[in-house]
Amino acid sequence: xxxxxxxxxxxxxxxxxxxxxxxxxxxxxxxxxxxxxxxxxxxxxxxxxxxxxxxxxxxxxxxxxxxxxxxxxxxxxx
Length: 78
Prior knowledge:
Elements lengths: L9 E9 L10 E6 L1 H10 L2 E9 H21 L1
């Protein structure tokens, strides 16, 4: 499989709003960082509304870390 070279400064920041109730509250939004090449397969594989924002990679990484911190705190609470 050919290695796809990622762009240095550009990442796609994806807001996935899930319609399923699998392990999540209905309509709960999860933020994840996706590479451009993965977006199409994500969109077709899951019945989810996807909102894209093209942002600087550092911002995406910061946001992702914040989200992970929040998620781990939530898990500790329960």
